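Two quick folds needed for the group meeting slides. Do the first one here.
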Amino acid sequence: MPSDSQIPIASQAASKRFATWLAAFYSTLFGASGAHLPFFTVWLKAVGIDASWIGIITAVPPVTRFTVLPLVTGLAETRQALRGGIIVTGFATALGFCVLGTQQQPVLVLLVYSAMCCLWTPMVPLTDAYALRGVALPATGSTTARCGCGARRPLSPVRCFAACWSMSSRPGT
């Protein structure tokens, strides 16, 4: 297995730019999740949704991780379209949040949130795979990753973020 990047990066400056943008994308992705999680249930209660429906609605993301995540990530990997998958899921998630904000009926909120989670939950594994293909990781000698349930990954997302961050902050590069 080659230790070079699978995404052509012409120079060290381009590699640094890739790592910096990747770190910014990870920060934005996890920042959005962090802002969403504590306030989503408060918003559901504020629009008048019953506590039992809130429990059902907030159970959707874990269910999609085991059902839809392997399908979406597997499709993106077989078509060699990780970047395109990230773009599509990102825009669809943003659109889903806009539509979700207009709903106040529990069934409609559940349907919109379910559709949105089917595209939101694969973003992290798709980004992990894209990062590992785009950044040469000399410590492991491997840049490939397989997405999906039970997949083989050379690095965890935290180690990948650390590798990207260290590449963007090396002195003299």
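Then this one, please, same format:
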Amino acid sequence: MDSSLDLTPHSRPAPAPGDDRLCHFPWPKLPHSPGRPRWTGHGFRIGSRECGVLDYHPATRGLFESTAGSSGSPIQAPSPVDRASQRTCLNLLKRHVQEPTTILEIGYGRDSLLPQLREHFPASSLIGAGSLLAPLDGMAQNAPGIPLLAFDLLTCPLPDACVDAVVMRSVLERIGDDRAAMHQINRILRPGGICIVEVPAGPHLYDDYDEHLRHFRRYTPGHLHDLVCEAGFNPLGGSHLGFFAYPGFWLSKRRSQREAVRKPEGVANRIRRNAEAWQNPILDMAMGLEVRLGRWISFPLGIHCVLACRRPALPAVYIRDTQSRLESSKFAGVRQPSTRDFR
């Protein structure tokens, strides 16, 4: 296990009620609300009313649902792959983000990263978002001091350029128009901001289990790379997650594809069996090793694709115009700056 990113429960610092950045954050108005919400450090105040979660679209939730919310299956404990996902995203954030900063996690479910972000980024402002209200309400009770929002990412109410980093784990595959979703992320990030994206890998492994979880698709690294580039991001590096677990995962998926089980209860039973099989101490050690190795190498196969990308600090049009002028410059023998120099 990576000692620098120990996720075992221990005492955590109390929330800072005087976080000036969050108290002055431009929280959007709620529908049919006369005034803007105000963050108090422990919850939101809207006029004389207080609440723990701002719910912007109560009638259109469902894009970032947990397994229980989306399919009726019981919530399972985080698996070794889930824990490795948390550590991988933390490593990427530590590599590309400097405190103090404002970090938004989208897609809260059974293994939210918010408690670990609070521990590893104590000087930063944290915000959690999702569309399923029940887990967010639970988080508000169990981890006070973190603002939580419920909204549809495709109609994200957050203002332009309001956060410095966004983490999305197991989100894009649940959204029909993933391109529009990535454009929304680009919009709300400040110039130079970082986005960490994790999605299920292997379109050829899509099965009724994915349908049960309401996944629209699985991804290849090339597909994910093109998606973020189309939204205006500069990819910073990516890899697969779950390389050591991939052989067993591949066999399980192929067997699932051969089975003719299409009844919801049949899929739910397989979910429970698979969840029990994943709770394996040997797999936990293997995933810990993979996370450590992942700091230096990229894995060619895996269960998930992980990619870090940056919103350019300068407009893309400005960079293209600058490159055109440099390429036509008479100083052909001098090294010309690249887009990397403008980041």
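Slide caption for protein two: The chain has a mean pLDDT of 79.
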